[in-house]
Amino acid sequence: MTIDELSQIEALAAEIAELSRTFEGSSQHFMVDGPPCLKKSEELVALIQSPAEHATSLIAKTMETAVIRTLLSLNVLQTIPTPGYISLQDLAAATETQPYLLERLLRVVTRSGFIIRENEAYCHTHTSLAYAGPLGGLFTPCYDEGIRALIRLPEYLSVKSKEEAKSAMHSPFTWNEGQEGKTTFEILSKMPARTKGIHTLSMNVQHLRPYAGFFDFNELVSKDPERPVFVDVGGGNGHVIKEILQAFPRIRPEQCVLEDRAETIELARTTGLLPAGVQLLEHDYLTRQPISNAKAYHLRAVAYNLGDAELVQLLKQIVPVMGPDSKVLIAENILFSDNGTTFSTVSDMIMLCIGGKERTERNFREVLDEAGLTIDSIHRASGLEFGIVEASLKMP
Ligand SMILES: C[S@@+](CC[C@H](N)C(=O)[O-])C[C@H]1O[C@@H](n2cnc3c(N)ncnc32)[C@H](O)[C@@H]1O
């Protein structure tokens, strides 16, 4: 190690010591980048680690990820008592797992300190205990819908033609599921437990996708009481319209439309989230938009599910029914031009697997332009990558 590298290590260690004096605890939110002293500690590890140690730790971590997912599916984490210890034999019996297999899996997580083994018995750490609870419900869909297919990406790319790899119906996800030719949503609609997992995950990253506070939806209020004001395309179970109407009560529910696939519309009918008066419409967003001349067509967390060609196709279904002052509002992460956050990077890799994409401002400009739209403004939520891309018809 050179003198330069040693002094860099010393400087970073001093910075961490300084930051730890004002450290007030780690974030309890999922997918939020940690506090500065954690970031600096990671930089320190990167400086100290040799390339061989880096590769070793990466391989061990990847294996630990699969092991933790397995321990959740075997109900092992959920069976370890709190507080207290459980022997291998009792844990194996309670989870109907072979003791020899269980011991090998648990060795991976006791080595890392995720679980503690003492006197031939196992007990939780505060981290493994969190996985046994709601955190496991967030980790599992990231693993099932992202990591599982991503791990096979080199193999996928070696067997797919370039054209096939561009289509969402031949995405790493559909290929890995053995269901090419269908859309991700068609496949997931037959898997209620996994759909529920994705829904739980999406509700738990809402702090990174605020509903209000950065765009004035009051601008949409129309003097014409008959005019549709807010069409929520792929609007989900109704939580978005509910929050927006709550924050902007001048918008009348009767002038709002929730559009989605049949099963989601059914969900929206039963959850009771939607204010009375909102119209519900079964609609495939890749077909002609049925509501003409709305003040705004709103797409929240929809564009990132789609590749460029599909997003252009979706927008081209809206353009012909827009009035001269209609807006398309795309509420999404708009990637920072420098390094991405953990959230958008993880999200982009999951989207890569299902044929979607997180986008930069330039990426949005390109797809909107191809669809016949132009960006009027970008409204970012303070300190977040999330925001609204406000677009209107391109003037001839
Ligand atoms: C990630 S969710 C976003 C839901 C909601 N906009 C939100 O912000 O929470 C994507 C939505 O697109 C809907 N969707 C998927 N394919 C669709 C299609 N072909 N036509 C209409 N909606 C579709 C899904 O049912 C789902 O509700």
From TrEMBL:
<feature type="domain" description="O-methyltransferase dimerisation">
    <location>
        <begin position="59"/>
        <end position="129"/>
    </location>
</feature>
<dbReference type="InterPro" id="IPR001077">
    <property type="entry name" value="COMT_C"/>
</dbReference>
<dbReference type="Pfam" id="PF00891">
    <property type="entry name" value="Methyltransf_2"/>
</dbReference>
<dbReference type="InterPro" id="IPR036388">
    <property type="entry name" value="WH-like_DNA-bd_sf"/>
</dbReference>
<dbReference type="GO" id="GO:0044550">
    <property type="term" value="P:secondary metabolite biosynthetic process"/>
</dbReference>
<keyword id="KW-0489">Methyltransferase</keyword>
<keyword id="KW-0808">Transferase</keyword>
<feature type="domain" description="O-methyltransferase C-terminal">
    <location>
        <begin position="229"/>
        <end position="373"/>
    </location>
</feature>
<dbReference type="InterPro" id="IPR016461">
    <property type="entry name" value="COMT-like"/>
</dbReference>
<dbReference type="Pfam" id="PF08100">
    <property type="entry name" value="Dimerisation"/>
</dbReference>
<protein>
    <submittedName>
        <fullName>S-adenosyl-L-methionine-dependent methyltransferase</fullName>
    </submittedName>
</protein>
<dbReference type="InterPro" id="IPR012967">
    <property type="entry name" value="COMT_dimerisation"/>
</dbReference>
<keyword id="KW-0949">S-adenosyl-L-methionine</keyword>
<dbReference type="InterPro" id="IPR036390">
    <property type="entry name" value="WH_DNA-bd_sf"/>
</dbReference>
<dbReference type="InterPro" id="IPR029063">
    <property type="entry name" value="SAM-dependent_MTases_sf"/>
</dbReference>
<dbReference type="GO" id="GO:0008171">
    <property type="term" value="F:O-methyltransferase activity"/>
</dbReference>
<dbReference type="GO" id="GO:0032259">
    <property type="term" value="P:methylation"/>
</dbReference>
